[in-house]
Amino acid sequence: MNKLGHCTYCGELRELTVDHVPPRCLFSKPRPPLITVPCCEPCNRELGSHDEYFRLAITTGIDAINFPKEVADSVRAINSLTRPQSRGFAQRMLRDYQPNPSRLTIDKGRVEIVLHRIVRGLFYHHEQRRMDGPIAFAFRMVDQNLKVSLDGQQRLDRLASSLVTIGNGVFRYSFESFLEPEPFGTAWLMRFYDHKAFFCVTASDSSEILGENSQVSNTAEDGGENDNLQ
Ligand SMILES: [Zn+2]
Question: Is 203 a domain residue?
Fold first, then answer.
């Protein structure tokens, strides 16, 4: 029987497993030492179901010279996807893979689930306390479409200058407190494969994130299930 304890994500007192942060599947073998946080079995199963999708979405168009194994893994994974909804995604991936690998329509909701979980896991790892209660989460991709205020840019620059790296450029991240004294107000910069970068914010109340103080925004509207995450 596994040890009883509180899950990092749902907070329930349950038998604990460990969750790797970020997902272990992002790293090719031999894997570097990875951060783990306590996690209950239901959360592990539910959250883990999005990992492979996330990895495929993130690795599309990565630098094949610096990340040859990850590119090979992606191609293998695309070929082995069998669920109907995965097949549709795989076909889009394949269609986009060679001619124009930088453009791909992906399910933004699933990407958000994984990013949110990474943020909560890393927060627990560094702060030794869980983000408790309903946590609002928002993210923007950091690319040429990102419109950033002066303050927002300074924050991004600050975060970019203090990135911690796990696994040879596979994952880099940094964070800082965002809206003090808001206990769970944090701002994050996360970069995957030196290829896709995300700015993420958390707060206890969604009104704190999407209010008029919002410092960054994408030019594209956020509506809709799918977004072109290029
Ligand atoms: Zn849980």
Answer: yes
Number of structural domains the chain divides into = 1
For residue 41, what pLDDT is reported? 95
Is 190 part of any domain?
yes
Going from the Cα of 6 to the center of ligand 1, the distance in angstroms, rounded, reads 8
Strands 105-107 and 136-141: unpaired
Distance 79 CA to ligand 1 centre (A): 32
Q: How far is the CA of 122 from the centre of ligand 1 (A)?
A: 15
Q: How far is the CA of 143 from the centre of ligand 1 (A)?
A: 33
H/E/C letters for each residue in 111-155?
A: HHHHHHHHHHHHHHHHHCCCCCCCCEEEEEECCCCEEECHHHHHH
CA 227 / ligand 1 centre spacing (Å) = 28
Task: Look at residue 186 and tell me if it is in a domain.
Answer: yes
Ligand 1: centre distance to CA 184 (Å): 19
**pLDDT tens digits, 7-50:** 999 999 999 999 999 999 999 989 999 999 999 999 999 998 89
- Report CA(24)–ligand 1 centroid distance (Å): 18
Q: Classify residue 150: in a domain, yes or no.
A: yes
CB of 162 within 8 A of CB of 151?
no
Q: In terms of residue numbers, what domain contains 153? A: 129-222
